Amino acid sequence: MASSIPATDPAVYASYQAKWAALPDTADAWLARAREVADVLAQDAAQRDQENKSPRAEVALLKHSGLLKVLGPKKYGGGEQPWSVGYQTIREVAKADGSIGMLLGYHLLWSTTANVVGTPEQIERTHETIIKNNYFVGGAVNPRDSDLKITAEGDHIVFNGQKFFNTGGVVSDLTVLEGVLEGTDGHIFALVPTVQPGIKFAHNWHNIGLRLTESGGVKIENVRAPWSDALGWDPSTKKPRDDILQIPFASLLLPTIQLVFSNFYLGIGIGALEFAAKYTKQHTRAWPFGGDNKDSATEEFYVLERYGNFFAHLRAAEALADRAGEKASEVYNQYGANRAALTAEARGELAEWVASVKVVTTDTGLRVTSGVFEVTGARATSLKVGLDRFWRDIRTHTLHDPVAYKNREQGRYALLHEYPAPSWYT
């Protein structure tokens, strides 16, 4: 990282390395650890959002907590929890800080990419590397851009190109690259060390929300990886493994990450309501000109009605997200050791559950994070309060891919029982 780029100081969280030295050993303990992380982040979340520095300290906190390892195999030092628990940890962290919840979510996806598109040997090797070293993984896999170009040079592949957006790369140890092999239509994923001359970050993430995700542009110049690291490809023949890449299981990355999105949307929405409730109880004044005047805002009918309605919709969204998370875990558990057995129909059913969650968490999250200002009052718009960050965060990422297309997809499923064709967004 260039010295001129402001970053948070990892030393501020150094004490948590010893405090959290032992990993949690049950699902409940992992969620308790995620809440502990959230409590730490909540203390100065608004200030850190406004300062907009590279989140090196926050990534260090995630490393100290062990949350980066929640899905990893125990034999390498991971928590070996199912995706359903991973999704809930993302949600808990996002309640306090949407940016860090997002970074955790993307890391969990990229660090387990080999489970979906890698060979058995690659799965083992990448898990061992990531978990034993407690690496944080970023990704430059924005499919809206022209794909990175890949050329073959002997026993290596070479990436060249650029992405307008990447996620967490600036503060990562490893970066997932994805591109198309020259002369073919074959896509290749590979994990490469982030700190190298050929990976040049633009440091241009200055958006209204998710300001601590380092989601700006990146230029890739002659970044090399051995053929043995080309996920799902045979290094001897330099060909894709059809038994891995040409089956429905290989397209699970997309519903998996879409459910990552929904869980940090949900966490942001819940966090906004909890933050607003504390503010209302401490600072919001009753309206004195309503004709049915109350002594405090917490006795106002419209305030109670709004909070109750928001709470009910968030609770429903949470139940739906948990159900979808369980279904994702069931698919991985049932087919992880026999990937060829997953049918297009079973994959489609999971995709529809995930699409439902995406629609509901988008709609509910936007409604809650904007609506809480109605029950906190004009003073709650102060930048010092920081209530606006919840809306800015969820508004920013819900534009990742238009939710209108998820509604259309659901309409075709409900009306015609058509499953969506797997794509970069479905």
From TrEMBL:
Which parts of the sequence belong to the Acyl-CoA dehydrogenase C-terminal domain?
259-400
Q: Which UniProt keywords apply?
A: Flavoprotein, Oxidoreductase
Does the keyword Oxidoreductase feature in the UniProt annotation? Answer: yes
* GO term, biological process aspect, one: L-leucine catabolic process
MF terms from GO for this chain are: 3-methylbutanoyl-CoA dehydrogenase activity; flavin adenine dinucleotide binding
Question: Which protein is depicted?
Answer: Thermophilic desulfurizing enzyme family protein
Q: Give the originating organism.
A: Penicillium chermesinum
Acyl-CoA dehydrogenase/oxidase N-terminal domain ranges (all copies): 31-128
Look up keyword Chaperone and say if it applies: no
**Superkingdom per UniProt:** Eukaryota
Q: Which PANTHER family match?
A: ACYL-COA DEHYDROGENASE (PTHR43884), ISOVALERYL-COA DEHYDROGENASE, MITOCHONDRIAL-RELATED (PTHR43884:SF12)
